[in-house]
Amino acid sequence: MKIFHFFQILTNIPLRIMYPTKFIGKKHIPKGPCIIASNHKSNLDAIILATHTWEKKFYLAKKELFEKKAKGGFVKGIGGIKIDRQANDVGAIKECLKVLKNGKKLVIFPEGTRTNNEDQSLGQVKQGVAMFAIKGKVPIVPMFIMKKPKIFRRNKVFFGEPFALEEFYDKKLTAEELEKATEIVANKLNELKDFALNSLTKKK
After folding, report:
1. 99-118: string of b/e by CB count within 10 Å (b at 16+)?
2. I want to staple 196 with a disulfide (CB 3.0 to 4.6 A). Which of 49, 81, 110, 158 is the partner?
3. Which CATH number fits the domain that encloses residue 100?
4. Statement: the pTM of the whole predicted model exceeds 0.85
5. Are 102 and 82 contacting, i.e. CB atoms less than 8 angstroms apart?
6. Tens digit of pLDDT for each residue in 173-184?
7. For the stretch 49-83, what's the b/e string if a residue is b when 16 or more beta carbons lie within 10 angstroms of its beta carbon?
8. Is the pLDDT confidence value at 145 over 90?
């Protein structure tokens, strides 16, 4: 943890200058465990979030980011959890549930890959967010990144109000139930996206 905060202090000012980002609604992030579910614009998303919020968070990161020792060590240092997206990675699943059980925050990009659609539409939302939230019995905080980070370009990141999938707790999680829960997650993400885009339009 000390190494992580050292990284924050070391990179805080340079990153804020190079990637000026306004975080809106940070008050919605609760104390204690939760899942932050966000659209995914760039590999910098996790780094910028880590710089702007003091508490260490953990991220699902594709195994390819760990192939080189130095890069892998950095990704792990900022909270990266290696996952093989082409397989049922039981080890990664257990690690994520352990993070939540220990009272920490887990960040997931539920589209599963970076998207930068001109119409800001979200890609297909994977079922991982709903599954972890139900099994861990933790709330979900939707997050929306307005633009792909570009050097010296101002950006905005929005956080929505947390919600819980309590109606799915303590019951058999069938494929049908998981699909319903995932649809709720997708709807909440789209609601936040619409709010963010509307707020931008009003200012114009």
Report:
1. bbeeebbbbbbbbbeebeee
2. 158
3. 3.40.1130.10
4. yes
5. no
6. 999 999 999 999
7. bbbbbeebbbbbbbeebbeeeeebeebeebbbbbb
8. yes
What is the domain extent for residue 128? 2-203
Mean predicted confidence (pLDDT) in 137-144? 98
- Joined tokens for residue 192: 């936040």
Q: Which residue has the tokens 């000026």?
A: 20
Q: Which of 108-112, 126-130, 151-155, 200-204 has the lowest mean pLDDT?
A: 200-204
Q: Please tell me the distance from the alpha carbon of residue 25 to that of residue 45, in angstroms, as a whole number.
A: 17
How many other β-carbons are positioned within 10 Å of the β-carbon of residue 48? 22
Q: What is the pLDDT of residues 18-73, one digit of tens each?
A: 999 999 999 999 999 999 999 999 989 988 888 888 899 999 888 888 888 888 88
3-class SS of residue 81: strand
The phi, psi pair for 51, rounded to 5°, reads -70, -35
Domain tally, the chain: 1
